[in-house]
Amino acid sequence: MTGNPAINKRVLFVNPAKENGYYADRIHMGFSLLGQILLESGCQVKVVDYSFLKSIESETMTIPQIEDIIKDFKPDVIGISIFSYLYDESQKMIEQVVRCCNTPIIVGGPHVTLFPEDFSNDTRVSYIVRGEAEAIITTLVNSATRELSPVLINSPVPTPEQIPAINLDIVHESRHLRNYQIQLSRGCPFNCSFCTIDSIAGRKMRARDLDYCLDQVVEAKRRYPNIQCIAITDDCPTFNGERFKEFLNKIAERRVDAFLTVDNMRADLIDEEMLQLYIKAGGQNICLGVESADPEVFKMVHKGESLDKIIYAAKLVHKYNLQLGLCFVIGLPGDTLEKHRESVKLTKKLKADYIFWNVCVPWPGTEVYEWFKKNGKIGDIRNFSPLIDSKINFKDPPAESNIFKKEDIVKAWLTANMETCNIPIIALRNARTIPAFMLRLLYLTRRYNLYKSSFIFIWKLFTSKLWFEIKKRLKVYMWKRRREKLAKNILLRTP
Across the strands, what pairs with 49? Predict the structure, then answer.
């Protein structure tokens, strides 16, 4: 793409939300970065992140409809982010947009990078952007017109200098933000068999200037005092241990009044000095990627570290009284229902505070994808999410192998979540969900023969502090129902 810098165009960025209640407490970072670039070029920019808005929705805040936003803002260009687990919602959002305006639509995001063919014949869309868009967004927006068929753009990888500071001022309702994201780098040099990093951000590390990142964090906290957490979202933040320690030292010196979290940590790149500095900087948790505790399955992941190192790192995390998180992937090459039990055993042995039980998704371009083509079946991975909602609804696994069928993967998935009490019991604070939850639990218990796992889950739930809160809320809910019923009866009797 060629052209002059974008001047005086109105650009609307939209991120859809999952319809069944999976909402993010973070603002779409990519849009807040691209918006800053466009602002510097003279554009007016608005970011509407429906996933974030759903997470802060309350009786005093109404979420605007996309039609109303377009009517008020009158954008010249609209960008829509496409994540695979939001594929259906993204399609509906595009349809809503084209019904109310004829504005050029740009689609981008991880799904488009992996599956550009999904929109190659979609005449509703004018541009398809693969990869990170920082290097081309200004030129693209400046020359954007309504195209008869989509134009595919392969964006060059931006340099660290081309990645600006996040701009929250352009984000609708950003004043409510509590969880602020920062990237110190992009890329990951490792070669995990299931990971799409090579296609999304590349294996070459691009380290951003630490002082620039720190200034960004400090300014965000000053302008948005509701921020309580600084989340480091790098693909591999500790690729250079000394550099990461330097960041921890500097953020501790700046005394940012917020705690620190890190999304991804490798066990073999953690040492005691790093943990000490992490605590000094306000660190609260460490989440380690285990993937599988079965030695044979683990070996096929090609993580480049050992299970022994992960176990040692987990013990260090406990030593420094940090919250321990563990990530697993169910259904990896070579995995079976029996081998999966080793992962459940390990979580209990390491006494993890929280656990992510992901289901293996064979993304195109990965080693896992090639393995499943030879040793199993790959279904439609669009709209799949490894999350289980408050009514224990979930999507069927997108793939199965010859030795680990979908039925057993679901059983392994449910067993793991139940026995580690990882079903989203926080959502049970809403008393209205409890009857549906218990009925669904009973059905799944009988369907998959999960009597032992269900007993463990219910026992942990009833002996937790949360159960007392649930009972209190259920009591209030039932009292309100009786009042409503009584009022209705009185109205019926009134002549």
Answer: 15
What per-residue confidence (pLDDT) applies to 435? 75
Give the CA distances from residue 90 to residues 30, 112, 135, 383, 454, in Å, rounded to whole numbers and listed in that order.
16, 11, 24, 10, 35
Domain membership flag for residue 96: yes
- pLDDT tens digits for 404-452? 999 999 999 999 988 887 665 544 555 566 777 788 889 999 999 999 9
Tokens of 81: 């982010």
pLDDT tier for residue 477 given thresholds of 50, 70 and 90: low
pTM above 0.90, yes or no: no
- In whole angstroms, what is the distance from residue 476 CA to residue 494 CA? 27
What local confidence, expressed as pLDDT, does residue 426 receive? 47
User: What is the rounded distance in angstroms from the CA atom of residue 133 to the CA atom of residue 156?
Assistant: 8
Which pLDDT score is estimated for 440? 87
Q: Render pLDDT for 232-287 as a digit per residue (tens, 0 to 9).
A: 999 999 999 999 999 999 999 998 889 999 988 999 999 999 999 999 999 999 99
CATH of the domain at 26: 3.40.50.280
- The answer as to whether 317 is a domain residue is no
pLDDT in the model for residue 41: 94
Does residue 106 sit within a domain? yes
Greatest Cα-to-Cα distance within the chain, rounded to the nearest angstrom: 81
Range of the domain at 80: 10-160
